[in-house]
Amino acid sequence: MKLLNYTSKYFVIILLFIIFIWATFFYYSMLDEIYDSMDDGLENQKGLVLQKAKKNPSILEQKQFEDGYYMIHKLSQRPKKLGIDHYRDTLMFMQNEEDFEPVRLLETSFLMEDNYYKLKVITSMVEEDDLIADLFYSILWLYLGLILSILILNNFLLKNTWKPFYNLLDKLKNFNIETEEKISFETTKIEEFSLLNKNIEQLLYKSQESFKQQKQFIENASHELQTPIAISINKLELILEKNNLNEEQAKTFSSVLQHLERLKRFNKSLLLLTKIENNQFIVEENININTLLKQLVEDFYDFSNYKNLTIQLISQEDLNYYMNKDLAVILFTNLIQNAVKHGKKDSQIEILISKNTVIIKNESEKNIPLDGEKIFNRFYKQTGLQNSTGLGLSIAKAISNKYSCGLRYYYKDQHCFEINFL
Amino acid sequence: MKILIIEDEIDMLENMKQSLEKEGFLVETAPNKQSAFSKIGIYNYDCILLDIGLPDGNGLDILKELKNNGINDGVIIVSAKDSLDDKLKGLNLGADDYLPKPFHMAELNARVKAVLRRKNFEGNKNIEIGNLIANPEERTVMVNNIKVDLNRKELDILLYLIANKNRLVNKTALAEHVWGDHIDQADNFEFIYSQIKNLRKKLTIHKSDIEIKSVYGIGYRLDIL
């Protein structure tokens, strides 16, 4: 849920609650005020009736409301509470409405010329249900009006207030730790946001630094390993050249040598990977992929022929791409190598060059789809191939990433590696 | 034939020295830039193996100095960096070859010999071994004055083994030299065998007196019968 909607939701709920309480309170105080004013009017009318009665005793005979707003009733004895006003609500049949309507009634008693009288004065009352309905609608409109204005204000205000925040989110989304570029932060007057910016800047800086250090470490480590490995290999080569070794000794040395060779290859691949990631292959040229692949297929002939694999190169279109030549060679070498290495004996490897894509297809001994995500991970090895460094496909992926030509794997009757040169 | 190795890694230096001395070269060594300068100031060498990363400076300075003084020694740059930049710089400065570390001893021999051949035998570019004459530039091989038809790989294998004659060349070194760097992740190097087989057959047909021996399945050695 968006921040904007989140606050709006709370506003809607809280306002509903507050306005309800406020409306109730308002209604009762309103009603109270109305009663108060009606009662004052009634009291006034009572005074008027009494004055009138002094001048004109005939009105003392007004026994029904009929054409007036009061009635007087003669009492046979002294009422208990003489002269005390008593107000109450009651219903009365109204001619115009043809219905009983609520009226406010003042009942009192008075003494005039030794006679006790009871006086009732009425006044038409506001219809309570009408008032509630009116009030309800007014409050509903008020509520909606408030919500609407809050939403508009909220939208406007929040959008403006949170602008630095959304900018930040946008930038973080596009942030790539592998690139050296830094995020530029807009200055903001809001302290929290400027603090957030500052902290994120520091965090990113630290991550970039540690990423760089890690890369540096791998590079340095493989660099440092190179010389001792080379020396050991060369020493063993020199020992093996001496003719004074018996077969068993020679084979042992040779086995050590082979393991060192593996280590050397692994180290070399690791170094290559860091070099690609560090953008150390700069010179670029226009490369004809068709020619390159033709050459590579020839180079691989002995290699594939040994497994009785046929590599079929199908050039549907001429494909040229601007990239570093060494990397282009490494990219396709690794992919073809992968196909040959895992290819099924006596089967066929198909390399298809179409307008913008190159697809390399091979069958394997166990024709089951591989995990398209994991196979490009470093050191991911599914087969127990001894000589595999587990880096070949990661290197291919790193190269394709560098040139943003998406290298992907899918399975369609056979293993397919597709590169898109766009 | 005199060779100077300029290399700061003592063990590396020792290996190279040992391997080249086996080939009958006179080898001198310099572990840093300063001693290298004093050596090239006094002596002439047929080939200089030059490590770029020296403790007291860039080895390319030595190359510059040599070329400035008009000294035409053969120079092979040896570098642990294997960077295209260094390679281009070195070759532009007049180096004859560039050998990235790590390398096989057999590869070192082959490179040194190739440089020496280009430098010293301007008139005669042939290599004679037994009754076989090979011309690496023209890529031809004759036995008893009859041309032997070899394909590209057979020829590369033969020339490499000739450069390392009487020495064991292990399969990895051979595969890397002939099939290139990128093929080095092969499951095994058995595919070399079929090429060797063909090569042996052709040499036998032409009654050559050199023989390619398999040594314990580790590698091959070219011997003169």
Automatic annotation (TrEMBL), chain A:
Any single GO CC term annotated in Swiss-Prot or TrEMBL for this entry: plasma membrane
Keyword Transmembrane appears in the UniProt entry: yes
Keywords: ATP-binding, Cell membrane, Kinase, Membrane, Nucleotide-binding, Phosphoprotein, Transferase, Transmembrane, Transmembrane helix, Two-component regulatory system
Any GO molecular function: phosphorelay sensor kinase activity
SUPFAM superfamilies: ATPase domain of HSP90 chaperone/DNA topoisomerase II/histidine kinase, Homodimeric domain of signal transducing histidine kinase
InterPro entries, A to Z: HATPase_C_sf (IPR036890), HATPase_dom (IPR003594), His_kinase_dom (IPR005467), HisK_dim/P_dom (IPR003661), HisK_dim/P_sf (IPR036097), HssS/ArlS-like (IPR050398)
Catalyses which reaction(s): ATP + protein L-histidine = ADP + protein N-phospho-L-histidine
Entry EC number(s): 2.7.13.3
Residues of the Histidine kinase domain: 220-406
Entry's localization field: Cell membrane
Keyword NAD among UniProt keywords: no
PROSITE patterns cross-referenced by the UniProt entry: HIS_KIN (PS50109)
Pfam families: HATPase_c (PF02518), HisKA (PF00512)
Membrane topology summary: Multi-pass membrane protein
UniProt superkingdom: Bacteria
Annotated transmembrane regions: 12-30, 135-158
Protein name: histidine kinase
TrEMBL record, chain B:
Domain Response regulatory: 2-116
GO BP terms, alphabetized: regulation of DNA-templated transcription
Domain OmpR/PhoB-type positions: 124-224
Modified residues (4-aspartylphosphate): D51
GO molecular function annotation: phosphorelay response regulator activity; transcription cis-regulatory region binding
DNA-binding region: 124-224
Keywords: DNA-binding, Phosphoprotein, Transcription, Transcription regulation, Two-component regulatory system
Listed GO CC annotations: cytosol; protein-DNA complex
PANTHER family assigned to the protein according to its UniProt record, in alphabetical order: REGULATOR OF RPOS
Name of the featured protein: DNA-binding response OmpR family regulator
Native source organism of the sequence: Mesonia algae
